[in-house]
Amino acid sequence: MAKLKLPVPPVPPQLKPLPKRPGKVYGPQTPIEHAGEAAATAVGWIDERTSLSGGARWMMFRKVPKGTNWFYTLGSATMFSFLSQAVTGVFLAMYYVPSSTRAYESIRTINNDVFLGEFVHGMHKWGSSMMVILIFLHMGRTFFFGAYKYPRELNWVIGVALLILTMTMSFTGYLLPFDQRSYWASIVGVNINGTGPLVGPYLSDFLRAGPNFGATTLSRFYAIHMLLVPGAIAALMGFHLFLVARLGTTAPPWVRAKSSEQLREEKVSS
Ligand code: HEM
């Protein structure tokens, strides 16, 4: 099988310096231009020692298929909603107390006393629904455009794992305010997990952190919600994006390929 190694794209013309014109003064003049020059020097210093710009160009400056449209932004939108959840989550974690006696009170403090607390809490709460909606829309786009087919099957499978992890985030986050609604809804959710074949009872035991639903359950949900699952999502997202850059995106189904499927497969395997 031929090696599918894509070359690093050349520096785009927009980023290349323009040729000098006689009679024009070059170099930074205003303080803002000096600041820009200093930033460019710092970036250049890092790049000379790491060669990271080649990787960044490889990731960002790519040719996309004809017919690429707004539906292709749904994956990035999902990623940005995750990043927003991560940032707002860090600020909430500074005030939230994962204790069965103090969790509810700490959420009230965030909403009523902390500067911009209600706003950040609201962003996190509504952002979670946003992420779930966006991930389903993105999955629908890849499904209807046939992007799950060869050679992108693995990226679909990683996507399924990301979907399960995103749902786990929603489920574990729901208990954290520890009010009546979240408490009883989480008991129902854990019991539903317990009805699963074979692993069900073990899964519900793991989620409850013991035979009874209580203080230990809250700590367990909190650890899963803010450490285990976001870490796994970040890692899988990185791999998902690597494969997108490696394989490129799929053309929309209405853009017809010039060569036949068979011919293309022969080319790849020769
Ligand atoms: C945290 C969740 C996810 C993030 C951040 C994410 C991000 C992305 C991004 C940025 C792309 C590039 C093209 C585009 O945006 O359409 C992409 C492509 C893709 N994603 Fe996702 N994705 C996620 C979840 C999923 C899920 C749930 C599935 C399916 C089960 C999936 C399957 C795919 C496939 C097959 C492609 C290749 C599309 C193509 O070749 O045109 N992704 N993803």
UniProtKB/TrEMBL annotation:
* One example GO MF annotation: oxidoreductase activity
A GO cellular component annotation in the UniProt record: membrane
Q: Where is the Cytochrome b/b6 N-terminal region profile domain?
A: 42-253
What are the UniProt keywords, alphabetically?
Membrane, Transmembrane, Transmembrane helix
Mark out the compositionally biased spans (Pro residues): 7-16
Ranges for region Disordered: 1-23
Question: So where does this one cross the membrane?
Answer: 70-97, 130-148, 154-176, 223-244
User: SUPFAM superfamilies, from UniProt?
Assistant: Transmembrane di-heme cytochromes
- What biological-process terms (Gene Ontology) are attached? respiratory electron transport chain
The protein's name: Unannotated protein
Source organism per entry reads: freshwater metagenome
